[in-house]
């Protein structure tokens, strides 16, 4: 496959993410507008910050009148997991160079990382296809949100909230089906995150992800792990 | 600079910097098989931590809404339904669930 074909293939792989991102982007825009942000500010935040939960938290904090410093610090903590995800993605990609890596790093989010990590092909072009499709759909969602302004009925909005989780579950299930060791690791990490969440708050996600992978070193055999050169 | 500009640029920087550090150094690093294994396990543990307990907060009042959604998505994935169809079907089924909640 040529680079272009791989990129287009990646874009197609990214389409399921857009089903979750457009509605979630609209939801973010609804909060941002309510917080008094202008349409330009709302959309540029999606383009420049590009962090689902981080942006929604930031907009909520603007709404509650938090200081800029508090918002920035909270975003740093909430988005620090992208350091880990970016490391994983860039360790896996092939056919890349530094400028492409920098672009890939900016468009690394939970969904693009998950979709790519558990896919068979490791070309940078596949990754950029997936991740740029997701990025643009997130911005498109914010744009639709500021245009329609009317907040969707709560029931419909809540039903859309499930879409990203449905995606996460759908990506994870084939691996669980394949290996009991992975299933056990997933269970252990989930419990760990619930328990640590009581004490660590926003830090819990990244701490339990890393602790879980550390535990996985001992409970998962090499043959069950996808990705990398493995 | 005004408040919103500081917030947006500040958030953009603190989000971009951790993301881009690996992009600048990854070529110079050659991870040992152990570190590679650790990095390759992270997708599984990150997904586990993202789903749980976050999925229970899909609806702030009714925790079981998210649980039902997760079970539906898992069932569909188990049956090898395509990813996009899983997302759409799960949303549609949840709207259906909401329409019967008032009767209980």
Walkthrough of the structure:
- The complex is a heterodimer of chains A (230) and B (104).
- Chain A is 79% helix and 0% strand.
- With 230 residues, chain A is mainly α.
- The mean pLDDT of chain A is 88.
- By secondary structure, chain B is mostly helical.
- In chain B, 73% of the residues lie in helices and 0% in strands.
- Chain B has 4 helices and no strands.
- In chain B, helix 3 packs antiparallel against helix 4.
- The longest helix of chain B has 23 residues.
- Chain B is flat, with a radius of gyration of 20 Å.
- The termini of chain B are far apart.
- The mean pLDDT of chain B is 89.
- At the A-B interface, helix 1, helix 2, helix 3, helix 4 and helix 5 of A face helix 1, helix 2, helix 3 and helix 4 of B.
Key words describing this protein structure:
heterodimer; A: 230 residues; mainly alpha; globular; B: 104 residues; 2 domains; 4 helices
Total DSSP helices of chain B: 4
Oligomer: heterodimer
Unreliable segments of 5+ consecutive residues of chain B = none
Chain-averaged pLDDT of chain A? 88
Main structural class of chain A: mainly alpha
Order of helices and strands of chain A: HHHHHHHHHHH
* Low-confidence region ranges of chain A: none
| Extended strand count of chain A | 0
Largest sheet of chain B: none
Shape of chain A: globular
The portion of residues forming beta strands of chain A comes to under 5%
Largest sheet of chain A: none
Order of helices and strands of chain B: HHHH
**Residue share in helix of chain A:** over 70%
Share of residues in helices of chain B: over 70%
Task: Note the total helix count of chain A.
Answer: 11
Spatial extent as radius of gyration of chain B = 20 Å
